[in-house]
Design goal:
With about 110 residues, the chain is an all-alpha fold. It has a domain of about 25 residues. The chain has three helices and no strands.
């Protein structure tokens, strides 16, 4: 009975030594972790790609949406149109001063 128990402990010790004392096994574990991380990244990028593909299709097929984007991102105003810019009401009038430190009349 004692011999059987000793054999079991020796086998467990040898297995533990082979698994955890071996850099190959540790490399395998870190490889699995890296694969999981990369798989998540690929899934995120695929979702982003699908979103961008839909956006591109909409830009190519919808002239009104294309015009909206041009006006919004580039500030495009057609000839004869007037652009109104609303300034914040209070507390930020200092940031609306002209460059050069001018404080207005006076």
């Amino acid at each position: 009975m004692k011999d059987r128990r000793l054999e079991l402990w020796v086998c467990l010790a040898v297995m533990a030594l082979l698994l955890f004392g071996n850099s190959g096994f540790r490399s395998l574990l870190s490889g699995w972790q890296e694969k999981r991380r990369l798989s998540r990244t690929v899934d995120e990028l695929r979702g982003e790609h699908e979103t961008l593909a839909r956006e591109l299709a909409r830009i190519q097929q919808d002239p009104a949406y294309t015009e909206f984007l041009i006006r919004k991102t580039l500030g495009y105003v057609e000839k004869g149109e007037v652009e109104y810019r609303l300034m914040p009401k209070s507390g930020s009038s200092r940031s609306a001063r002209p460059a050069g430190g001018a404080s207005g009349p006076g």
